[in-house]
Amino acid sequence: MSANQAFLLATQRGGLALRRPDLGIIAPGAKADVLIFTGNSPGMLGWVDPVAAVILHSHVGDIESVIVDGKWVKRNGSLTYENYAGVQQSFLQSARRIQQVWKNTPYPDLEGTFSNISQYAQATQEDTLRGPGTGYGTVFV
């Protein structure tokens, strides 16, 4: 897929694939969100094709401003949410709680055959560093 095809899939053609001609375009009555990218970050400098620069080389830090439903949600590099510090703390509390649930969840014992195709293999942990290293890896036997 070319960078241009990927861009179209993420915008107008993606909306059409969802049978939503009101997505991915800027027109009266459309539901387009607008992202404004900065072009002066190290990953974005020097590219002749701005679509290729955005699709292949940009990251969230390159998004300068965002408009959703006609409202600024990020402007001049900063989020515009009220009480964003509170949102961050709520997110961190949820993340810690969910991570603890997963940490305390035992791994399942896989026995038998997967989809009547292949036997499950027994995996062992093998350290890839000498001494008491932490370079663990999984070896299937």
Structure commentary:
- With about 140 residues, this protein is an alpha+beta fold.
- The chain has a domain at about 5-80: Urease, subunit C, domain 1 (Roll).
- It is built from four helices and eight strands.
- The protein has helices at about 5-10, 10-15, 50-55, 85-105; strands spanning about 35, 65-70, 70-75, 80, 115, 120, 125, 135-140.
- The strands form three sheets. A four-stranded antiparallel beta sheet has the order 1-2-3-4, with no helix packed on it. Strands 5-6 form a two-stranded antiparallel sheet. Strands 7-8 form a two-stranded antiparallel ribbon.
- A hairpin with a 2-residue loop joins strand 2 and strand 3 (about 70-75).
- Helix 1 crosses helix 3.
- The model has no long low-confidence stretch (mean pLDDT about 85).
Please sum up the structure shown:
The chain is α+β, with helices and mostly antiparallel strands.
Itemize the secondary structure elements and their pairings.
Blueprint (H helix, E strand, L loop, with lengths): L2 H8 L1 H6 L16 E4 L12 H8 L5 E6 L2 E5 L2 E2 L4 H21 L8 E2 L3 E2 L3 E5 L8 E5 L1
Antiparallel strand pairs: 1-2, 2-3, 3-4, 5-6, 7-8
Helix pairs in contact: 1-3
